[in-house]
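hey all, quick one before standup. I had two proteins in the batch that finished overnight and I want to keep them in one place so we stop losing track of which output belongs to which input. First protein below, input sequence then structure tokens straight from the run.
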Amino acid sequence: QVQLVESGGGLVQTGGSLRLSCALSGRTFSSTNMGWFRQAIGKEREFVASIRADGRSTAYADSVKGRFTISRDTAKTTVTLQMNNLKPEDTAVYYCAADSSPFWTSAMSSRERQYEWWGQGTQITVSS
């Protein structure tokens, strides 16, 4: 059974930083593409960042480029989202997702339907 467990959410002031982690179990991490999505109140879930199974390619939403960094640690079977210079508009529930496809493109990785497994979500609140 594949499970994704997120951690690291919380409350931070504008301009602050947070690090989200997502641990994958039940599946070979090195063959799993990973992504982060977020959903603000009253809005649809949107793509944030993704990383290919081998860690050699990443993709970011325009709204987070230059501020967020996605990375993965095979030994810990964990994907991390480092978020810097946070803004109030980053407030949302953040979801980790996993994709078993042997193929990866930035376009594919930004689509919700590409992912088979999802974490429970963790709340990020950025105060102004």
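OK second protein, same deal, sequence then tokens:
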Amino acid sequence: QLQLVESGGGLVQPGGSLRLSCAASGFTLEDYAIGWFRQAPGKERQGVSCINRRYGSTYYVDPVKGRFTISRDNAKNTVYLQMDNLEPDDTAVYYCAARSIQFWTCVLSPGEYRTWGPGTQVTVSS
């Protein structure tokens, strides 16, 4: 059974940093395109960043470019989202998700992803 579990969320002051982890069980993350998404209260889930299957090209939405970094540790079967210089608008529940295995490239549309983790809360506040 394919499962994803996020961790690393919490409360941080503006300008601070957090590193989110997305750990997989039942499958090898390197073989899947993986995305990070977030959903703020009252808003739709939106893409944040993603990494392609195997060769690892990465993509970011404009609001997080230069502040967030997605990476993958194949030995730990984990994808990370390093978030620096956090802003109050980054407050949301963050989810990682995997596309179906036939897709090599990632996209930032939530509807294109098949397997989701339960999410981790990130709150940026002073």
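Flagging for whoever picks this up: The mean pLDDT is 96. The radius of gyration is 13 Å.
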